[in-house]
Write a structure and sequence with these properties.
4-stranded antiparallel β-sheet; 7 strands; elongated; 3-stranded antiparallel β-sheet; single chain
């Protein structure tokens, strides 16, 4: 088999996409906390709602609670985006040009500062989104490969190779 080679540079947008996806899939409780607050509030105010059980009271009660939930969610979203921006700017290695080679037995990721070889059996899992191919080295460390119109066919070949090698696909 011929090696599959891909050269790319990770952008801040790619890194932010990964962080948002990771937060939405790994830490859903972070986004559920405000709604749990509403549920507790409803349980405590149950007697008020029973006494005023018409639809107008219910709707106004929930809408008044949601006024406090959405700013919290928007603030959390902005903090997450800002954090990804800071990490990307501080970690200069994230923005270095990369060369990833997929051979018969391993993948090799090379930058001007590092060279990393990983056997396929050591890959934790692989996940593909519309814009990223994510090769997890562990539960919290990954190689991010951006997908665009220029490299889409190459990424499809890589994805097929990883499936063929028995890597866990999510």
């Amino acid at each position: 088999m011929n090696d599959i080679e891909l050269n790319y540079t990770l952008t801040e947008v790619d890194y932010r996409r990964f962080n948002i996806m990771y937060a939405l899939h790994v830490m859903p409780i972070f986004f559920l906390v405000p709604f749990i607050g509403i549920l507790i509030d409803v349980m405590q105010s149950n007697s008020y709602l029973r006494a005023n059980s018409d639809l107008v009271h219910w709707v106004s009660y929930y809408l008044s609670n949601l006024i406090f939930v959405f700013p919290i969610l928007i603030l959390a979203w902005l903090v997450m985006i800002f954090r990804a921006h800071i990490v990307f700017k501080k970690d200069k290695e994230l923005s270095l040009p990369r060369r990833v080679v997929f051979s018969d037995v391993a993948l090799t990721e090379t930058t001007e500062k590092s060279n990393f070889i990983l056997d396929y059996v050591d890959i934790y899992k692989v996940q593909r989104t519309k814009k990223l191919l994510i090769v997890y080295i562990s539960g919290i460390r990954a190689i991010l490969i951006p997908i665009n119109s220029e490299n889409e066919l190459t990424v499809q070949k890589i994805y097929g190779l990883l499936k063929e090698k028995g890597v866990k696909i999510k």
